[in-house]
């Protein structure tokens, strides 16, 4: 049942990401990417989650933002050991 919620969120988050990317709103891009990564993680797509978390981290660092850093780090902690980034 929880997986359904993750699957339902992705179609809402992807257009949001596109809108923020068009606007160049870097902090929001990092936030939405982090949310998408958590959805992929919840659906068991660890590889995709890792990829999206890394993109969120990159944007967050580029814009000097710390507001999303905790979210990205939390996401990394959720990744399984098979990705090589769990703690």
Number of helices: 4
Helix and strand composition category: mainly alpha
Strand content: under 5%
Considering DSSP H and I runs of 4 or more, what fraction of the residues is helical? over 70%
Overall pLDDT confidence? 81
The domain tally reads 1
Q: Order of helices and strands, N to C?
A: HHHH
What does this structure look like?
With 87 residues, the protein is mainly α. The protein has one domain. The protein has four helices and no strands. The chain has helices at 2-23, 26-42, 46-62, 69-78. α1 (2-23) packs antiparallel against α2 (26-42), α2 runs antiparallel to α3 (46-62) and α3 (46-62) runs antiparallel to α4 (69-78). The longest helix has 22 residues, at 2-23.
Please give a handful of descriptors for the protein shown.
single chain, about 90 residues, mainly alpha, 4 helices
